[in-house]
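Fill in residues.
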C-alpha cells in the first residue's frame, strides 16, 4: 500500500483513507449500483432484498501487504452474504480476505494480457 497522505488515484478522486490493512485483507467500497437496484419496471430494489446467490462488485480502497492479485482502484466480485462492515469517516466499507474474491476487473489486466504465458499460484 502506498503512503496514506498521497491523493487517491481511484475514479472517485477522494482523499486516501487513514487505514492500513493487514495480511491478506482488502477494504472495499460497494459500487453504487450494488447498493440500490431497479427492476425492469422501474421499481427500486433495496440492497437488503435477497435475490438468490447474487454476487456484488466493489472498488478496492486498501489492500494488505500479503495481497497478490488485487490493487487499490480495482473492482472485485465477491459474495456479500457473509461480510464484515466497518465505518470510516462516516462511510461504510466492507472487509474481505483475498481468497473470498471471485474475480478482479481492472484496466491493467487487459494491458498485461499480451505476452502472458499463463496463471500460477
Amino acid at each position: 500500500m502506498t503512503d496514506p497522505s498521497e491523493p487517491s488515484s481511484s475514479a472517485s478522486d477522494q482523499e486516501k483513507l487513514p487505514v492500513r490493512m493487514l495480511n491478506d485483507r482488502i477494504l472495499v467500497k460497494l459500487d453504487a449500483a450494488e447498493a440500490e437496484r431497479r427492476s425492469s419496471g422501474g421499481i427500486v430494489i433495496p440492497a437488503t432484498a435477497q435475490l438468490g446467490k447474487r454476487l456484488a462488485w466493489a472498488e478496492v480502497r486498501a489492500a494488505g501487504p500479503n495481497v497478490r492479485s488485487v490493487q487499490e482502484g480495482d473492482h472485485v466480485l465477491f459474495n456479500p452474504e457473509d461480510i464484515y462492515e466497518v465505518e470510516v469517516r462516516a462511510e461504510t466499507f466492507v472487509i474481505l480476505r483475498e481468497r473470498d474474491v471471485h474475480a478482479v476487473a481492472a484496466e491493467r489486466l487487459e494491458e498485461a494480457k499480451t505476452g502472458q504465458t499463463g496463471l500460477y499460484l
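The chain has one domain: 25-111.
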